[in-house]
Amino acid sequence: MVFVVSNEREVFCWEKNMSEIEPSLSRIEESLFDPMQKRNREEAAWRIGADAARLETLSSIERDAFLTQFAPSSVKAERLTALPSDPKVILGGLCSIFTGDLETGEARKAVEQIRMDQLVESVGGVRDQTTFVIVEDSNFSRLTGLPVKALQEQATMAIKGIERWLAMTTGTTPNLRVGYTSDPILEKGINESVRYMANDVLRNPNFERLQSAPIVMMYTSIWTDLLASLCLIPSCPVVCVEPAVHFVDSRTFPDATLQNAYNDFIEWLKDNPYAKPGSANANLGIVGFLESVTGDQSKRRTRLLPWTDVPTTQNVTKWTNTLQETTTRFPFPLRNSLIFAEAVNWGLWNPETRQQVSALIRLEEEYYQVRNLIKTSEEGKSQKQEQAKNIKERFAVESLPLIQAIAKQITIILTTVLGD
Fold first, then answer.
1. Per its UniProt entry, which superkingdom is the organism in (predicted)?
2. How much is the mean pLDDT over the chain?
3. In angstroms, rounded to a whole number, what is the distance separating the alpha carbons of residues 294 and 12?
């Protein structure tokens, strides 16, 4: 298709290249975030895995090997540390209640359902790998006052959802293993591991006082050794694949002694980097992927929203109906498009959806280039306005089939994962 803006003096043309090139995650993020948001993400320091590198900084050989070996979650990976050779297990964890529901006092209602972001952000799916997920039921019971039984009932639903998500994304039957922090044997092992880290590794007993100590300990080989000793995973190289925000880990502590204990843990991690021979964490690596974000320009992490504002088992039909209703809206800029955000949140693992996302990004580029040509032309104001209107209508028509196809695919994903 050729778009032409002309007057007597000049002719401006933009011809669409029909051969689409699948964009990198960094390129997708350019359309998803505004420049400041994207820059802030790129410059955010990781405390856990401080030496992790952004995917685009790797050599083409390293990048291609990672994208292949860790597919399909690798398409959303932002950074990764050095990884142990031939890993056999992928680690993750299920947050029983997200921040948005804790802050709004909706924990009791939230525990009665499952959020899509809760499932997707538990662990990255990798084909042909054993996947272990820890359910932090007792931790969240202490945090919320909810009975462990209620959190375990929710976890039963969540594990089924994670299995459906992994089966759908990887195209294989997942080898999913699950542990509960409320399990007496595992809980005893966690407590002993935290005590060992505090007294024998860090030599700072205050580490044991940290409420988050059991969680941050799970980003060390002490955790994987414990899981292997309990036969929950095989004794082998392991990679933790979770949202990047977990590794930024910007938590602070009001008590200086607790802050110092946490800082000692971070310094120990720096001294024992992931997958480095001779390191205490030689058999562990981490990969951080893009977490779920909102479809408006704020691009808030969806985990900061209440369950009413994200797709869940209770509102999935209403949510997919909303997606269909938004297909008629003009999609550009894509950072304001709910459907584009949903495609990135839930659909990038799907090659067809990635191609559709790529086509939308190309159309967006073309639309704004043509718009700029109109603005710099020597036409009068009324002529420019008419041309801009016509161009917008043309791009609305061309983008509509893509938008409808994405909405249909996301509807299938949500109903398959969150449905009965």
1. Bacteria
2. 93
3. 36
Domains of the chain: 11-22+315-418 (no CATH), 47-289 (3.40.50)
Whose CA is closest to 341, among 377, 389, 291, 381?
A: 291
* Confidence at 15, pLDDT banded by 50, 70, 90: very low
pLDDT in tens, 182-236: 999 999 999 999 999 999 999 999 999 999 999 999 999 999 999 999 999 999 9
Q: How far apart are CA 411 and CA 405, in angstroms?
A: 10
Q: In this structure, which amino acid lies at residue 84?
A: P
Query: How many other C-beta atoms are found inside a 10 Å radius of the C-beta of residue 304?
Result: 15
* CA count, 13 A, side-chain hemisphere, 252: 1
Exposed/middle/buried for residue 177 (C-beta within 10 Å: 0-12, 13-18, 19+): middle
Question: CA 365, CA 122: separation in Å to the nearest integer?
Answer: 34
- Coil, helix or strand at residue 239: strand
- Alpha-carbon distance of 194 to 206, in angstroms, equals 11
Question: Are 357 and 406 within 8 A, CB to CB?
Answer: yes
**Cα-based torsion angle of the residue sequence 179, 181, 187, 192 in order, rounded to the nearest 10 degrees:** 90
Dist CA 270 CA 273 (whole Å):
6
pLDDT digits (tens, 9 = 90+) for 68-106: 999 999 999 999 999 999 999 999 999 999 999 999 999
pTM here is 0.92
Q: What is the 3-state secondary structure (H, E, C) of 364-403?
A: HHHHHHHHHHHHHCCCCHHHHHHHHHHHHHHHHHHHHHHH
Q: Return d(Cα 228, Cα 235) in angstroms, integer.
A: 5
Mean pLDDT (whole number) for 252-260 = 93
Take residue 21 and report the two structure tokens written for it: 């090139």
